[in-house]
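Collaborator request, handled under Task 6.
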Amino acid sequence: MKGPTNILAIDTSTNRIAVALLQFGKPPVVAIKDDGLRHAEYAADLIKQVIKDSGLMMQELGGIVCGIGPGPFTGLRVGIVSAQSIGYALNIPVFGICSHDAIAFEYAQQYPNEDVTVITDARRKEVYWTRYQGIKRITTPFVSKLEEVSNKGIKILHQPLCPVSLANVAIEAMNRTEKRVEIKSFATDSAQGDGAVVALPNQVLLPPIPLYLRKPDALTLAERA
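Structure tokens returned to the collaborator:
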């Protein structure tokens, strides 16, 4: 994507289904639904809603940004597949963004110099967490028990993601002319059983593939049976 364009942002990495449409020179159009169990049901409706409310046609989109997690298996893939499908149909670029990057970006707009640990719910009584210095990601994402989160005096931030920030993170990276990396899957570098740590590149612009950190719940239960 080069120059002003219309960008659709989608994130389903948490209990929040979040969609936004950014148009150059106009306020963003945002639609959000908080529901941890019906991502597939609401995502398509929210996408249609922001397109309608913006007054645009789908064909006027110039690119799509999707949150790739970390997040639970089923909900996370809804947003990514939606982005991939629309991008393929319209022949427009689709960018993946670590969802924690967008949350850190939101906080850094007000407190640019603070170190922060972003955490989101991983279910199974665990959390996903990533450490940042301002907007710079300084650790790879982890999944662990909350009491095992290594903050060491760093402020812990746990808040919902705004889809506008997801798009703004991508826009800033593109303005820096950051090159996209070619990755087919995110391989774990120190997996303990199911992949508690993932080797995530330093780049912000990533492929639109899911960052799970661990196996899906259904598969894990089947393996235990």
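The cover message to the collaborator said: "The domain at 7-224 is CATH 3.30.420.40 (Nucleotidyltransferase; domain 5). The longest strand covers residues 115-123. Please let us know whether this matches your experimental observations."
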